[in-house]
Amino acid sequence: MKKKKTQVCIIGSGPAGLLLSQLLHNEGISSIVIDRQSREHIEARVRAGVLEWGSVEALDEAGIGARMHKEGIPHAGFELAFNGDRHRIDIKGHTGKDVMIYGQTELTVDLIARRLEQAGEIVFSASDVVPLDVKSPSPKVRYCANGENYEIECDHIAGCDGFHGVSKSAIPDDVLKTFERVYPFGWLGLLVDKPPVSEELIYANHERGFALSSMRSKTRSRYYIQCSLNDKVEDWSDQRFWDEFSLRMGPQIAADLQTGDSFEKSIAPLRSFVAEPMRYGNLYLAGDAAHIVPPTGAKGLNLAIADVRVLSRAFVEHYKRNNDAYLDRYSEICLKRVWKVERFSWFMSMMLHHFPNMSAFEKRMQRAEFDHIVGSETASRSVAENYVGLPLEI
Ligand code: FAD
Ligand code: DHB
Q1: Which end of the chain is more exposed for a tag (fewer CB within 10 A), N or C?
Q2: What is one Gene Ontology biological process annotated in the Swiss-Prot or TrEMBL record (predicted)?
């Protein structure tokens, strides 16, 4: 078994693990990142597309915002639509801030490139990754790469390995509490190299189901429709997708829709999930390893970024000022925000989707939520504040 040593061993090289590694490097704290997937696989994954302004600032502070500012598109608002009626949420007017359209895929490419430029160590395609002795002062992570077994001795382990990772399972069952809601539908998303149908995002509730118009650039659109969990990507030809998307967006938007051949199409399930606590001994969970939100509020990536901002600050206090107060409060600080973001993502999901066996009362409630937002500046401001990102209270 080959041995290595570092201060923080990071399991998972998604946005949470990579950004944490960068923030620690900037403060002179060493880390090694380990992922079970290859670099090519990680850099090709298509996921989120909207950054809160606080996330934009965090990426700037980390020194990796240059391409995001060059290629990303600031958005000052987005639209809600309900059976053809439309209402714009003026994010900038209500909060003074924008959100930034910049794909998670691009952000991940930027982070990996920067870590490797700076001789940061990322182990790709590792197998049998296991966190060990997480309660002891010298926890370890074992893994296998290129046919060799390795053991990394460290002070702390950051579990940034997503919902299906191994880190959570190092927390004993009698300590870990989990909270979950699984939604009875998925999102079918596609990418197409055609200009977006509208300059801003449109979240639409239609009696046939939810639809979302988003984008990656002025020439690349990302569109989603709610689908059945039994559906397979192969069931949805591009033509079937365009027909359904047009119906749900309504004739006004459909008239401007430029269709074409998609070059990516995938189905994602929707889930709300929280694991408590987010710290156990010297193991800290961050991002999707600790919580999942349904994508309707565009919050998953942003929550992951918020967690590692808190965690990196806590490590800096630990290593530079011998102060463990932030590490001790890591779980408490993060969970307060996590639950508020879970609430918003749940609220948006409940308002905008068609649920199987919905009663007439529930349908009227959805419409009343929409009408309340349309008619109340306070309600619109609340949506804008949540969408642009709640303040990070460290
Ligand atoms: P991840 O990005 O999941 O990264 C975890 C990393 O850990 C991965 O690289 C994985 O390979 C690695 N890993 C897993 N297990 C192990 C192991 N045993 N050992 C070592 N490494 C391991 N959010 C939105 O806001 N909008 C969207 O449209 C959207 N779409 C999504 C679509 C899909 C299919 C998924 C899965 C998520 C989507 N999300 C979306 C959520 C958002 O992308 C996540 O919240 C975000 O990726 C969280 O970042 P993370 O770094 O915590 O986790
Ligand atoms: C995108 C995804 C979301 O979940 C969302 O709420 C907004 C945009 C996107 O992939 O572009």
Answers
A1: N
A2: benzoate catabolic process
